[in-house]
Amino acid sequence: MQLSLHLNAKAVVGSARPCHSVRMTRPRRAFLGVLAAVLITAVPGCGLLSGEEPVTPGVEQAKIRLGVLPIVDVAPVHLAIKKGYFRDEGVEIELQTIQGGAAGIPGLVNGELDVTFGNWVSFLSAQAKGAADLKLVADGYRAKPDMFLVVTTPDSAVKTPADLVNKKVAVNTRANVAELAVRAAMKAKGLDANTVQFAEMPFPDMQAALQRKDVDAALLVEPFITRAMQQIGAVPVLDTITGDAVDLPIGGYATSTKFAQQRPKTIDAFRRALVKAQRDAGDKAEVQSVVTGYAKVDPAIAQVLRLGLYPSTIDVERLKGVVALMKANGMLTEDVDPGKMLL
């Protein structure tokens, strides 16, 4: 078979002129065949046989169905969309609103979601109990004081953490990081959280539930904390980010092991784009620029939001601390190693 190589003397030394086919004698053919293999990708516009541009392998799936909540935790997703980070990586994001991290897991299992934001407690619990086979894609949000608060109304009988005993407290989903935070904070104060009646409802519904007295208190996150304080005079009763829960990892992004194995380039593209935006979110002004849209936050409220941290890497040791905290508060009996869940 005759082999035509798109090389000439000037092309080999970096000429930008078009490549031409060169017919070689047999003694030179073997040598230049090896040389071409090395240089062919360095010569613009030259293909090995056809003369076509080399094709760079892309993502396996161009559209990613992503589960999110209307909370500040996912501001980086919206920043990445706004700034074109996902587009630059060759993927499009289709957002689907979920009630909580636990609600996103069935979507991963049944294929309705490709990736979901969720709290680490729900991810770790589902993995430990065999309810899902998950891979942790990226970190999302880490707690700071005053941004994970149990609040109530000014006229409520609940004034102190001790008053939460035997009361009804709203959380967005059961057995998640919100419930863990309440349990851990009450335990740290010598209070029995098993006496609390946890009521499950979406974050956007909690303010009205407090006003109607459907619940005695609610674990709120931003932007709902500041909104409730400004609109109904909500009063903090318990800052849950204390004691063993200081710097508590709140949530991140996960996918199913099946999706990760079948579409590794897609997941890598998603993660690269998101990490860029996670770093951008370290600037509070960046977060404020998007929450007014996706979370429908008034600009005046956006200026005073209590924000946590947006890590760019997953800290396995911190996640092991979450596992220990879950076990200490009766929310996990099985063993699970977060390190084995990493991609």
Structure description:
There is one protein chain. The chain has helices spanning 9-12, 26-39, 75-82, 85-88, 101-110, 120-128, 177-188, 203-212, 224-232, 257-262, 264-280, 284-294, 299-302, 316-328; strands at 63-68, 92-97, 115-119, 134-142, 149-152, 168-171, 197-200, 217-220, 235-239, 249-256. The chain has 343 residues and is an alpha/beta fold. The strands form two sheets. A five-stranded mixed sheet has the order 2-1-3-10-4, with helices on both faces. Strand 6 (168-171), helix 7 and strand 7 (197-200) form a beta-alpha-beta unit. Helix 3 (75-82) packs across helix 11 (264-280) and helix 3 crosses helix 12 (284-294). The longest helix has 17 residues, at 264-280. The two termini are 45 Å apart. One of its GO terms (cellular component) is periplasmic space. Its main location: periplasm. This is NitT/TauT family transport system substrate-binding protein. Keywords: Signal.
List key phrases describing it:
disordered N terminus, D-Maltodextrin-Binding Protein, domain 2, 10 strands, 5-stranded mixed β-sheet, 3 domains, alpha/beta, 343 residues, globular, single chain
State the helix count: 14
State the domain count.
3
Low-confidence stretches: 1-56
| Mean pLDDT over the full residue set | 87
Major β-sheet annotation:
5 strands, mixed
Rg on CA atoms, Å: 26 Å
> What would the principal axes of the Cα set say about the shape?
globular
The fraction of residues in strands falls at 15-25%
CATH superfamily of the largest domain, please? Periplasmic binding protein-like II
CATH class wording of the largest domain: Alpha Beta
- Lateral strand order in the biggest sheet: 2-1-3-10-4
- The total strand number stands at 10
The CA-CA distance between the termini, in Å, is 45 Å
Structural class: alpha/beta
CATH topology value of the largest domain? D-Maltodextrin-Binding Protein, domain 2
